Amino acid sequence: xxxxxxxxxxxxxxxxxxxxxxxxxxxxxxxxxxxxxxxxxxxxxxxxxxxxxxxxxxxxxxxxxxxxxxxxxxxxxxxxxxxxxxxxxxxxxxxxxxxxxxxxxxxxxxxxxxxxxxxxxxxxxxxxxxxxxxxxxxxxxxxxxxxxxxxxxxxxxxxxxxxxxxxxxxxxxxxxxxxxxxxxxxxxxxxxxxxxxxxxxxxxxxxxxxxxxxxxxxxxxxxxxxx
Length: 227
Prior knowledge:
This protein has eleven helices and no strands. By secondary structure, the chain is mostly helical. Helix 8 (139-148) crosses helix 11 (195-225) and helix 10 (165-191) runs antiparallel to helix 11 (195-225). It starts with 6 loop residues before the first helix and ends with a helix.
């Protein structure tokens, strides 16, 4: 039976991302849209400043949920968070939240039976990744895995396989740290209204994560052929 690869879907998402960014750049040059976009950013910043502790807590928890559920994300709030709290605190809240969510996903994979985990990840994906990832898998391959797939997947998969928690959290720290730096840099250039810098950063980070996906897919196919 032919094995199904899930990495191409990641590449398709990257392509779709470029299309969306292109449309955004076009719309960004339309004054009413641009005015509405920045008005929303400044309104959200005022909301965060009016309730700093509550705002930081909500931002942290939303970041954690985004590492568990595919549809959740705090990325649209990052420009406002930069204005409200500055880059160091925003990065710390993002990274801490993402790691909290990843640890929870790992714990769910470790402690719960498979039928319960399918609420978060399908049997098909779990079975697929189990074909070439195990407790003994090299750390660098796990890091590639964390870079190549959506951030909610590694915790469930590696928890289910009882992969070393220390290696898992280190891989997630590196992968999410790179992603967080990219998000902050892009958000800052959005605030600076520097479209050229935004486009350059998107290309750089899309190339990085796209390359990780391609390399991981190549390793997966090679291991499958040797089975």
